[in-house]
Amino acid sequence: MFLLRAVILFFSVCLPLYAQVFSDLAPPPELNSRAFLLIDLQSGAVLAERNADERIEPASLTKLMTAYLAFEALYQKRITMQQKLPVSVKAWQAPGSRMFLEPDTEVTVEALLKGLIVQSGNDAAIVLAEAISGSETQFAMAMNLEAQRLGLSNTNFVNATGLPDPQHYSSARDLATLAGLIVSRFPEHFAFYS
Q1: First to last CA, the chain
Q2: Once rounded to an integer, what is the mean pLDDT over residues 34-57?
Q3: How far, in Å, CA of 14 to CA of 25, rounded?
Q4: Is 88 a known active-site residue?
Q5: Amino acid 30: pLDDT
Q6: Is the pTM of this model over 0.70?
Q7: pLDDT tens per residue across span 97-107
Q8: Catalytic, out of 60, 84, 90, 114
Q9: Catalytic residue selected from 88, 120, 133, 171
Q10: Minimal CA–CA distance to 83: which of 91, 94, 92, 74?
C-alpha cells in the first residue's frame, strides 16, 4: 500500500512538471489546421498551440456548449435523463449530421445526449435547446451568457448546432477551456464522450 501511495504521489507531482518541460522542448506538431491548442488538464500547462486565440468556425464543437447547458439543466433538475422531449418540425428538418428523429415523437434526454455527442446530431441539439430555453434562438442567447460568465472572450453563438454563420465563432483556447470544464464540472456525464 505504501508503494502504491508513493507511485501515485510521484506521478501527481512529477507529471505536471514533465508536461511543462515537454512544452518547453518539443516543437508543436505539424497539423493541417489553422488553429489548435494542446493542454495538460491537470496542470493547465500548454503543450502546443497555434493561433489558439484566433476566432474560427467551431462547427460541431459548438455542441460542447449545448451539452454543457444540458448537463447544467440536469444538475439543476430542470430536466431528467428519462424525461421525454417532443421532436419539433424544425428539429426534424435540421440539415447536416442527424440522429434521424421523427417529428411529433418524443425522445428521452439520455438518448438525445447520446445523439448529440456520439452522432453530432443537429436534430438532437435543437430538441434539447427548445426544451431547455423554449427556442433555439433563446438557447443561443443562454449559450452566450454562459460563455461570458465562463470568460470565453473569443466566442459567440448563433445556434445550438454549429451550422455556419458569420457571427458564430469561437477559438481553440475557448473550446479547450469549455471541454475542461465539462470534464471537471460534470464527470458523471463524461462517459458519453468515450
Answers
A1: 30
A2: 94
A3: 16
A4: no
A5: 80
A6: yes
A7: 999 999 999 99
A8: 60
A9: 120
A10: 74
3-state secondary structure the chain: CHHHHHHHHHHHHHHHHHHHHHHHHCCCCCCCCCCEEEECCCCCCEEEEECCCCCECCHHHHHHHHHHHHHHHHHCCCCCCCCEEECCHHHHCCCCCCCCCCCCCEEEHHHHHHHHHCCCCHHHHHHHHHHHHCCHHHHHHHHHHHHHHCCCCCCECCCCCCCCCCCCEECHHHHHHHHHHHHHHCHHHHHHHC
Residue where the block lists cell 516543437: 27
Instruction: Decide if pLDDT at 159 tops 50.
Output: yes
Q: Is 120 a catalytic residue?
A: yes
CA distance 121 to 112: 8
Q: Is the pLDDT of residue 19 over 80?
A: no
Of residues 12, 33, 43, 63, which has the active-site annotation?
63
Indicate if 60 belongs to the active site.
Answer: yes
Question: pLDDT digit string (tens) for 119-155?
Answer: 999 999 999 999 999 999 999 999 999 999 999 999 9
User: For the chain, how many residues are written?
Assistant: 194
Q: Dig out the grid coordinates for 98 from the structure.
A: 442527424
